[in-house]
Design brief:
By secondary structure, the chain is an alpha/beta fold. The protein has 15 helices and 21 strands.
């Protein structure tokens, strides 16, 4: 069993019924829909198609809707693009209407901002097109930045613009995000990812928007801004999980800082029991090639060893030439890395002297018991998914089978490390519940007879914090 989950971005390369079925068979656990691209109707149709296939395959699959957030982009340029020559001056013009290019010269690039930050100073670096082109600010005038080209090349319309290290006073939740949020609610998304998170207030803004629509959907905070790192604990506390958006982090900070930041974010998310996704360019070369580079294979393996819950494919599966192969390669790399991780038994332990809730203490004891008796699995009964996530926090070396009456919770647990979930009815009597679960998991081929399992449950159903029973049970 693979413990670390695979998030695959769905796009033009994988939207067909046959491709989606192949991805499910290859083992994707979460399907990401990037609202920066595609129409609302395309997203709804594709998600419905994928949900039907997942039900047919009896595969719990989480749907992650990734809101675009504010994106600073160039405006409309000539169809052939504009060539930026190294050493030449270029003027950036703030334009609220990025579609207009009247009265602009070849040396001028429109930017979809109403005004530039007054915190800019000479020497400020400006990156365009994910850092493929670079400028340096020489002088700021009202609504104009006079820059010199450091790294040149051809640039086309609507490419992204970054000002590394510069705090930006722009709303994090846009009108487009509000429209896309309704799409996520309509299709009953299992997770929503929020871009441009700078503080817990950004999470609270989205939670209020959901509450105004009488909706509750778990929120994933994308860590892509330097400001977020100064209040990471608060963001983790406010959100339901985080995504390490390494591409944007590398543009906003120096690339050499990102690997250590990745480890720190994953470690802190593990300590707080929140799912964490490691994202961006994990197998980027497989958008064009059938095999990854050695460096990419090492990158995926290191994220697994760091303790990530999930690794994400972006362009590899949304628009690449080898989407199925990318998922298969990622699956193999994860499995190989997990062998080493479990060989060293690098499990997480709670600090000594810390008073924990009953469910937390029960889950920690259950993981320890499973290891001590060489149990084949831990079976947890959960209504909200909370207890199952507490178990995953301790990274047990055995399988975790989560049984819940909620189809939504079943899909949401598809993101969580080491979790296999299925819909299971509520049964009041504890002994009847355990034996019915044993028979259910045996029918699915997940348990072997005459071997031990560890049961985690509670005496009172319907109480989210009523987990208080551990039982070592022989499968019969």
């Amino acid at each position: 069993m693979r413990h670390v989950k695979i998030v695959a971005t769905i796009g033009p390369a994988t939207a067909s019924q046959e491709c989606l079925k192949q991805l499910l068979h290859a083992g994707i656990n979460v399907a990401r829909f990037n609202m920066s691209h595609g129409t609302a109707e395309w997203h709804k149709t594709t998600i419905q198609r994928l949900r039907c296939l997942a039900l047919e395959e009896k595969t719990p699959l989480a749907i992650l809707v990734d809101l675009a957030g504010p994106k600073i982009r160039l405006g409309k340029l000539p169809d052939e693009g504009t060539l930026l020559q190294k050493g030449r001056d270029i003027i950036l013009v703030a334009k609220s209407d990025q579609s207009s290019r009247q009265n602009e010269s070849e040396e001028t690039l429109p930017v979809n901002l109403s005004h530039f930050s007054d915190r800019m100073e000479p020497g400020q670096i400006v990156l365009i097109d994910d850092g493929n082109l670079a400028l340096t600010l020489e002088k700021q005038e009202p609504n104009r930045l006079i820059c010199k080209v450091l790294v040149g090349g051809k640039v086309t319309s609507h490419k992204g613009v970054n000002f590394p290290g510069l705090p930006l006073d722009i709303p994090g939740f846009t009108q487009k995000d509000a429209d896309d949020l309704q799409v996520a609610i309509d299709i009953e998304a299992d997770y929503i990812a929020l871009s441009f998170v700078r503080s817990p207030q950004d999470i609270l803004t989205l939670q209020r928007a959901l509450a105004d629509r009488s909706a509750v959907i778990p929120l994933i905070a994308k860590i892509e801004r330097p400001e977020a790192l100064t209040c990471l604990d608060e963001i983790l506390d406010a959100s339901d999980g985080v995504m390490v958006a390494r591409g944007d982090l590398a543009l906003e900070m120096s690339p050499e800082e990102v690997p250590l930041l990745q480890k720190q974010i994953i470690a802190q998310a593990n300590r707080m029991g929140k799912p964490v996704i490691t994202a961006t360019q994990m197998l980027e070369s497989m958008t064009r090639n059938a095999f990854p580079t050695r460096a990419e294979a090492s990158d995926v393996a290191n994220a697994v060893l760091d303790g990530t819950d999930a690794v994400m494919l972006s362009a590899e599966t949304s628009m690449g030439n080898f989407p199925l192969e990318a998922v298969q390669v990622m699956d193999r790399i994860i499995r190989q890395a997990e062998k080493e991780m479990f060989r060293k038994s690098q499990n997480l332990h709670s600090p000594k002297g810390v008073v924990r809730s009953t469910p937390e203490a029960v889950c920690e004891a259950a993981v320890s018991l499973a290891k001590s008796i060489n149990a084949q699995a831990i079976v947890v009964f959960t209504e909200s998914g909370h207890t199952a996530m507490l178990l995953a926090r301790h990274r047990p070396t055995v399988k975790i089978f989560a049984l819940t009456p909620s189809p939504t919770v079943t899909r949401q647990l598809a993101l969580v490390w080491g979790m296999t979930s299925s819909v299971f009815p509520q049964i009041n009597k504890t002994d009847d519940r355990i034996h019915a679960a044993q028979d259910h998991l045996k029918r699915l081929g997940l348990l072997q007879e005459s071997r031990l399992i560890v049961i985690v449950t509670g005496e009172q159903l319907g109480n989210a914090f009523g987990t208080n029973i551990i039982k070592a049970h022989v499968v019969v």
